[in-house]
Amino acid sequence: MSRLKFGAKIFRSLRVRIFLFLLAVGIIPCIIVRNGILNSYEDRAVSVRGMDVQNQLMILSNQLISSDYMLDQSSDVINGQLDQLSNMYDGRILITDRNFKIIKDTYGLDEAKTIVSEEVFKCFKGENIVNYDPDNHYIELTVPIKDQTSKEVIGVMITSVSTDSILDSLDVLGSKSLVLVIAISAVILMLAVYLASFFVRPFSKVTHSIEEVSEGYGDENNLSIPGYVETEQLAEAFNRMLAHMKVLDDSRQEFVSNVSHELKTPITSMKVLADSLLMQEDAPVELYKEFMSDIAQEIDRESQIISDLLSLVKLDKKASDLNIAPININEMLESILKRLRPIAAQRNIELVFESFRPVTAEIDEVKLSLAFSNLVENAIKYNIDNGWVHVSLNADHKYFYVKVSDSGMGIPEESVEHIFERFYRVDKSRSREIGGTGLGLAITRSAILMHRGAIKVYSKENEGTTFTVRVPLNYIA
Fold first, then answer.
1. Does the predicted model carry a pTM greater than 0.85?
2. What angle (nearest 5°) sits at the alpha carbon of residue 153, between those of residues 148 and 159?
């Protein structure tokens, strides 16, 4: 079994396939041409031999008529010519009269016998017959003997001519052509080995570069293969993949660093507060309460970070974990706004919901509710006092659209493309002040993408921000 697998693996090799293709393209035509030449030579030689003998027989048939040989076979001149022609072509000549009786046989074996055959009958009707028997190596010809006055066929000359001399020439030609084919095949074999190696050489570079990637990333590993258009396209695709892998690697490293920093900061604060209390022997109760209150806030912050990280872990799972069901989007958004109105009221922020039509969609209510809650909650948190938040819902035949707009501080232009990154904060000091972890928009984006949706942001600093979400009405697995 292992040998079969090894053989199959070798045959799947591009180098082997190119080699076999070039070998076949080079050698098979040579064999076909050789056989074609030999067959053509044989056909031509037989045709020429047949025409020569036929012409000789036609001349001889006229002499037979002029010398009344059909009535009297004692003519030494005619008999001599018949024997000479028979010896010249290493053949045999039979002459029959109109009664199908053999009146002359150059071998002297069948004289006075009767011969009846299809070829003889056709010849009596005026047809000249030429048959070649390659198995027995002879040509059989029939030539009518016609009376010069009445043009009536009064006899038939049946001739068998050996083709041994043609076959001897054919063997010599075949041997020489075989040597030539072997020589050409040897050249083609060497050329196929070289060309197969040459053609797959660029792919070896690809393999080498990919192996280098396993040892670490670097600009020197950027692949460039200018040999073929296909290898250039392959190199470009590889470089794009490599760049994407570098971005992912950098993103993972940054994420781990950010998680470590975010989790360490509250612990460090709690450690400092606790050490401060321990260093004071007779600290007043008020100070204890103040420090313990600060420690409790840091614990809450740590808990919020962990909760958001767990939400991200759940959202990073495959889409098959979604609990899809038909949900009334209007009611879901109204429920979210009802829960957040008290928070908005604390800063006198007007929270408005506008629905253009009833919408029902196939979604995971828990995950998508979390996404829309983050958008509305951020719009409230990063707003100005006495501001407003406007939420609208619309739909067409394929998607439903949710728009969340606010009158807040806006997002700087250079930060817009980063706001969905984990732990990214536009204003770190304000985010810490209001309790943000930098994970809310990352969670929102992951939830929307799991539903095959899209989210866009439009913002201008000090004027406000608008998030637009598009989600399919029917979930596509």
1. no
2. 105
